[in-house]
Specification:
- This protein is mainly β.
- The longest helix is centred in the middle third of the chain and has 7 residues, at 115-121.
- It has one helix at residues 115-121, and strands at 3-4, 21-31, 36-45, 50-58, 64-69, 79-81, 84-90, 94-106, 124-135, 140-144, 158-172, 175-191, 199-206, 212-219, 226-232, 237-240, 242-250, 255-264, 269-286, 289-302, 307-319, 322-323.
- The chain contains 1 helix and 22 strands.
- The protein is 2% helix and 62% strand.
- The strands form 2 sheets. Strands 13, 14, 15, 16, 17, 18, 19, 20, 21 and 22 form a 10-stranded antiparallel sheet that branches. An 8-stranded antiparallel beta barrel has the order 2-3-4-5-8-9-11-12.
- It folds into 2 domains: 1-193, AttH-like domain (AttH-like fold); 194-328, AttH-like fold (Beta Barrel), CATH 2.40.370.10.
- A hairpin with a 5-residue loop joins strand 4 (50-58) and strand 5 (64-69).
């Protein structure tokens, strides 16, 4: 599939006519020396008059500092809402993420399954973040020259991802950390409903500047869906055309806690194991559908003994109280 990706795509795109037009950027980062990590996402939904703002920090003592909001916006001119700001300094090379606002501190992150109770019953603190991200890998993805998703099932008309390094400061309440680590970023634009996939698995991992991967499994309610991703070997990006994922589940609510994955290119395969260190469940509801997005900070191990860190993001539609993708 032919893709278009240019430096101008790092900036804001023209607001489309679709009522659910979304333009978003996402960053994750983990500093293994201090055992602190997190992710930040800002999604502009200007035709709905609001943005989706998420800040999630996995603290060294096991707590999670979290904030979600739908701050009002009137245009798609910038990523700057709800205290979260994303700036492109050099396209595909350097970006800056900052946040000034409040977070809720969760000793038991699974409490976010009931957001109202979690925000009401747990303490809140001031939070400041300032992190500069620089490129590690080349970008992966772009905008297809021909439409690839049926109307009503769109999740991103354009989408690319990139392995990154990050350095800066994170402060929560009276605590502050100077952080340096690795992560992954993405940028998407086009119509999006969180209910479009039946379920998906999105795995990201970094083993320093010389190795990392992204694996994606997207399942449709009807049809086979897609499998893909990339492996970065420090110099070349290798395209993954097949990924096999086996998941271990825990608890009555069936959260993922262990993963085995095999990523395959045309001439090589990599086998990885993932152990979820901390997980927070997020929720989106629309038209009587409940969508759960479980965000797992994950330690990854390769067969050669190397250890890395990243995220395992599991999206499932919830039917009769259970995630629909539990059988895979």
């Amino acid at each position: 599939m032919a893709l278009r990706l240019e430096p101008k795509d790092e900036y804001m795109h023209e607001l489309g006519p679709e009522p659910n037009f979304n333009e978003s950027m996402y960053f994750n980062l983990f500093d293994p020396s201090q055992r602190i990590g997190g992710f930040w996402r800002l999604g502009n939904r200007a035709n709905e008059g609001q943005a989706e703002m998420t800040v999630c920090l996995y603290l060294p003592d096991g707590r999670v500092a979290f904030m979600f909001g739908r701050p009002p916006i009137t245009s798609n001119d910038a990523f700057d809402a709800g205290g979260l700001r994303i700036e492109v300094l050099r396209p595909f090379e350097e970006l800056h993420v900052s946040y000034r606002g409040r977070v809720v501190l969760l000793e038991r992150p699974l409490e976010m399954a009931d957001p109202k109770a979690a925000f009401t019953e747990n303490p809140h603190e001031d939070c400041q973040v300032a992190v500069t991200f620089t490129h590690v890998s080349t970008p992966f993805g772009g905008e297809p020259r021909e439409p690839r998703e049926p109307t009503g099932e769109e999740f991103a008309r354009g989408h690319y991802e990139q392995l990154i390094a990050g350095e800066g400061t994170i402060a929560v309440g009276e605590q502050s950390w100077d952080v340096r680590g690795h992560g992954l970023r993405d940028h998407s634009w086009g119509p999006r409903y969180w209910q479009a996939p039946w379920y998906y698995r999105w795995l990201t991992a970094n083993f320093g500047p010389s190795f990392g991967f992204m694996g994606s499994r997207i399942a449709r309610r009807e049809g086979p869906g897609t499998r893909g991703g990339f492996v970065w070997d420090g110099t070349v990006m290798k395209l993954v055309d097949d990924i096999e994922i086996k998941t271990g589940w825990a608890g009555e609510d069936c959260y993922h806690d262990g993963i085995e994955a095999t990523l395959r290119t045309r001439d090589k395969e990599w086998h990885v194991r993932g152990k979820v260190i901390s997980l927070i469940p997020l929720r989106n509801r629309r038209d009587a559908m409940v969508t759960r997005i479980s965000e797992g900070l994950t330690e990854w191990s390769l067969d050669d003994g190397r250890v890395g860190y990243g995220m395992s993001e599991y999206l499932d539609q919830i039917v009769d109280g259970r995630p629909v993708g539990i059988g895979e």
